[in-house]
Design a protein that fits this description.
single chain, mainly alpha, Four Helix Bundle (Hemerythrin (Met), subunit A), 6 helices, globular
Length: 168
């Protein structure tokens, strides 16, 4: 369903887009980032915290490491400090890119089994579906943040995959 080239491209896209979103969000003050803007996680900050939480959960599953350690209901408040959130986002993006760059066919083929805190049961899905979910979840929430940033007067960069710089 997916290839190693897809995995690498999407990891690069993730890092590129997060740099844009966090750069734009960094032009706002903390009150503007925390303002309730009507999104599912309410604010820019809480949505970005949830997004990092989700990436931490999926990467923990893919790499057989620890997840975020808190339930999804607490994901919006998981990382309270903006500087910490920014630093941890950069580290997660590097982790995803490193994982993508060293992945083997076994990492994208076959099934992944994990205990889901959301469903309260053990789940098994094709690894390819789980990988697509990682990147789809990122795009979904970055889209929400992009809209909130635009409404707040900040301007993230272009989001279209075909315009990703080769060195991103």
């Amino acid at each position: 369903m997916i290839t190693l080239a897809y995995l690498e491209r999407m990891a690069r896209y993730n890092r590129w887009q997060n740099a844009s979103i966090f750069g734009a969000a960094g032009t706002l003050d903390d009150a503007a980032r925390r303002a309730d803007r009507g999104a599912f996680f309410a604010s820019i900050h809480r949505t970005l915290s949830h997004l990092l939480w989700g990436d931490t959960a999926w990467m923990g599953r893919f790499q057989a490491r620890e997840g975020p350690g808190v339930p999804i209901a607490e994901s919006g408040d998981w990382v309270a400090d903006w500087g910490d959130l920014t630093s941890r986002r950069r580290a997660m993006d590097a982790r995803i890119l490193d994982w993508a760059g060293t992945a083997t066919p076994d990492d994208v083929e076959g099934d992944l089994t994990w205990a889901s805190g959301i469903t309260g049961r053990v789940m098994t899905l094709p690894k390819a579906v789980c990988i697509v979910q990682l990147f789809n979840h990122q795009t979904h929430h970055r889209g929400q943040v992009h809209a909130m940033l635009t409404a707040a007067g900040a301007r993230p960069d272009v989001t279209d995959l075909p315009f990703m710089p080769e060195d991103a």
